[in-house]
Amino acid sequence: MQLIGDVLPQPHKLPNDMYQCKRLTKALGMGYEKIDMCPDGCMLFCDDHVYKKKCLKCGKGRYVKVVNEDGDHVTTHVAQKQLRSFPMAPRFKRLFLSMKTCESMRWSKEGVRDNPGFIRHPADSDAWKALDEFKRLFLSMKTCESMRWSKEGVRDNPGFIGHPADSDARNICFGLATDGFTPFGQSAASYSCWPVFVIPYNLPPHMCMKYEFMFFCLIILDPEYPGPKINVMLQPLIKELKQLWYGVEAYDISLKAAYLWSVHDFMAYGIFAGWSVHGTLTCPICGVDTRCFCLEFGGKICYFDCHRCWLPSNHIFRGEKDSFRKDTICYEGPPKRLSAKEILDQLASLKLNEEKTAYEGFGKEHNWTHISGIWDLPHAKALKLPHNIDVMHQERNVAESIISTCMDFSDKTKDNVKARKDLAKICKRPTLELTASGGKLRAPEERSVEMDEKLKFLDGYAAGLKRAVNLKTGKLNGLKAHDYHIIIERLMHVMFRGYLPDGVWSVLAELTISIDSFVLKRSRKR
């Protein structure tokens, strides 16, 4: 700061040091709170436990111990582990400081839709509408005796929302997103950082997903991934979510905000939602009604031919006997999706086993690892879609598997001897079964990789694929999720055309079109 100040012409108003800089930005509502945490993540030293010096569960000390000059162990006032909490209320208030953003924050209810038959904003979704139509009185449920209460009921405090009929266009619906990463690079010491982001959805479509309107609410720093103990770390967030449901004073209004859903990759989904994404009951939607099976030779859980049940009842694929699994037709409907109330009832019935390490029936009747704090929210019963999977991460997994298999990357290909043995047992594909010579699909020619090496894009559209192409090994290295997003939507059907059989290529082309339809700026309501 002093170096920059020496360069600027005098007199200037640049702060002299970081302390002055923090004082200047504090008035903007950008402060945060440090919360001491148990070294094992058992509890937070806040609220009633702010003066505790040891964990009430594991007994470990709160502060770091050092050896002084005399060789004695001395306890310092430096916490062994801390959590950074960024209050959401001041950041929501800042959205109403500017006239432009203040008007835009009403778009979710007052914005003009050019075609009501399309979904182009989260406010057009069924999840948002289910939250708006939540007809339970929260503040005093016993007085809600008839469905006429929304118009005739007496509000004990008009400044609070106890019912959707009291809703205001300025009330905020927002989403949460989190994922872990290594801040010091893969080659550095083991350490993970889990930021939790807030995305307010009241803004128009061209604004609500801009990074300028996203902000932190938590930063979790830990040498290991949080796992089920993320529930402890989310306690300050859940506490504030409950306060925002009741409302906080903001200028001339009582500002309310409600959690709508969360967005993660599949691994973070499992940690945040409390559902293990490993084993037979991996799918949180199917649950115990899953139709997956374990591969005899590969030893992995497989969902092959588990998706025909979602097709229309008269679809031609349902009657195909050998196009999918051997001698198998499908006329069953899809598994029933549990409502929020049914999930709450299921969570209420969970009991810990004798060892107190897991819930009874884990892996057989359910896959719950812990009860997420989201289900403690006042409007939990109104959450129609509490968690979402990030499409771009799924695109990366699918694209990487397809490219690695087609190009026969030895370390990532899904085509191996065990896979061919499972194929022969499950499917009717005589041309793909192992032969005496260990028959194998031939990888695409090198020219498909050369095309990637010569491709150029506009700035910001995609990373330079040239740096990821290795012509000697024929591999793509160092690609990120967004790069695979571009490959699977724009390049894959072009790069494989002429190198794969027409039947295989047409499937990849249809897959590209289908995935592209998932990420449209607007989609038709079903």
From TrEMBL:
This is Transposase. InterPro entries: Transposase_21. It holds the Pfam family Transposase_21.
